[in-house]
């Protein structure tokens, strides 16, 4: 047995073109087992195309991708046995009940009848759908249908789950309920590959994030690492009068606003830095009435990297 097990997902120089139109251009990614990885990007960035390749539903035109060491082209059957996929558009059959949807999925996966029944009951309970198990899925709310869709993708106990914009169209409460489900999946040991155009979603859930824009990965790292890429972090200090503002301007470099009696000072918002600055003002008898800390968020990062804003959660 290898002392270094393969990553859950390894993508190297992956490309996809449709004629002269390039959708993915030299993608490199690696996802560690048991983590939540988010691919963040606007509509049309290439997120769904990448998921389709990783799920063996489409073939790349360049590069390679492996799921737990298995090549998605040469070992497609092995890959399919390791993955679950939930898209932004539900695969739920609205004519069937919740139980019937799950049992049909088990049949398609060639599970034994007893295992299918037990697994269906387990997933209905896990996703808080037991009370609605015998209702037609067409009567479910959007959030319930999305939970059922995710439960169906878990019938085969996949090691990695691809969630392609799973909260699109959900109201804020349903979106946050689904976030809790996703966190539990990772806590139980599954690897989650999440695509989203919601900045808050990536920030809340992901251990690591890759930013995709126009078919290219423009940055990747932890949420904290990405936030350090964006300029604009600062302290906004408010003073009680023009004399205090003028005195503060002699102590630190910053952008003064005489009308608002404020001084904007570049800063990463670190507590020690803020404390030292306030202590310095106190030693010089410069009274600061209010301090506001602005730390760059993922919206700032996306704009800094791409030149345009990404979609934010409603």
Q: Tell me what portion of residues adopts beta-strand conformation.
A: 25-35%
Main-sheet strand order equals 6-7-8-3-9-10
Low-confidence stretches: none
Figure out the total of helices.
11
User: In the CATH hierarchy, what is the class of the largest domain?
Assistant: Alpha Beta
Tally of strands: 14
- Content-based structural category: alpha/beta
Rg, alpha carbons: 24 Å
Order of helices and strands: EEEHEEHEHHHEHEHEEHEHEEHEH
Corresponding CATH superfamily of the largest domain: P-loop containing nucleotide triphosphate hydrolases
Helix content: 25-40%
- End-to-end distance: 47 Å
- Count of the domains: 2
Largest sheet: 6 strands, mixed
Secondary structure layout:
Layout (H helix, E strand, L loop, with lengths): L8 E10 L2 E11 L4 E5 L6 H8 L7 E6 L2 E2 L4 H5 L2 E4 L11 H11 L4 H14 L15 H12 L6 E5 L7 H16 L3 E6 L2 H7 L2 E6 L2 E6 L1 H5 L6 E6 L2 H10 L3 E3 L4 E5 L4 H13 L4 E7 L3 H9 L8
Parallel strand pairs: 3-8, 3-9, 6-7, 7-8
Antiparallel strand pairs: 1-2, 1-4, 4-5, 9-10, 11-13, 11-14, 12-13
Describe the structure.
The chain is α/β, with parallel strands linked by helices and 314 residues long. The chain folds into two domains: 219 residues, P-loop containing nucleotide triphosphate hydrolases (Rossmann fold, 3-Layer(aba) Sandwich), CATH 3.40.50.300; 62 residues, Alpha-Beta Plaits (2-Layer Sandwich). Helices cover 35% and strands 26% of the residues. The chain is built from eleven helices and 14 strands. The chain has a six-stranded mixed sheet, with helices on both faces. The protein has a four-stranded antiparallel sheet with strand order 2-1-4-5. Helix 3 crosses helix 4 and helix 5 packs parallel to helix 6. The radius of gyration is 24 Å and the shape is elongated. The two termini are 47 Å apart. The model has no long low-confidence stretch (mean pLDDT 89).
């Amino acid at each position: 047995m290898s002392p270094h097990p393969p990553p859950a997902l390894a993508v190297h120089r992956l490309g996809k073109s449709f004629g002269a139109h390039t959708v993915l251009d030299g993608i490199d990614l690696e996802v560690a087992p048991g983590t939540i990885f988010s691919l963040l990007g606007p509509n049309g960035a290439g997120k769904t195309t990448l998921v389709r390749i990783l799920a063996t539903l489409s073939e790349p035109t360049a590069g390679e991708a492996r799921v737990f060491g298995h090549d998605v082209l040469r070992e497609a059957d092995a890959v399919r046995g390791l993955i679950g996929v939930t898209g932004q558009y539900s695969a739920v059959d609205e004519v069937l009940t919740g139980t019937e949807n799950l049992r049909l999925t088990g049949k398609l996966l060639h599970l034994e009848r007893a295992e299918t029944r037990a697994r269906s009951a387990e997933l209905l309970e896990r996703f808080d759908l037991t009370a609605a198990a015998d209702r037609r899925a067409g009567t479910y709310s959007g959030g319930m249908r999305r939970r059922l869709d995710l439960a169906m993708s878990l019938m085969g106990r996949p090691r990695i789950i691809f969630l392609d914009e799973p909260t699109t169209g959900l109201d804020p409460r349903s979106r946050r309920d689904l976030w809790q489900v996703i966190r539990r999946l990772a806590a139980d040991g599954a690897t989650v590959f999440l695509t989203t155009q919601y900045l808050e979603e990536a920030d809340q859930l992901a251990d690591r994030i890759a930013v995709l824009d126009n078919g290219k990965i423009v940055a990747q790292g932890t949420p904290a690492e990405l936030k350090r890429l964006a300029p604009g972090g600062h302290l906004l200090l408010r003073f009680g009068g023009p004399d205090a503002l003028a005195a503060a301007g002699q102590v630190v470099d910053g952008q003064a606003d005489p009308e608002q009696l404020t001084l904007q000072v570049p800063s990463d918002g670190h507590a020690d830095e803020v404390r030292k600055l306030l202590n310095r003002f106190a030693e010089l008898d410069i009274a600061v009435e209010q301090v506001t800390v602005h730390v760059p968020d993922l919206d700032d990062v996306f704009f800094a990297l791409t030149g345009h804003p990404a979609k934010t959660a409603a």
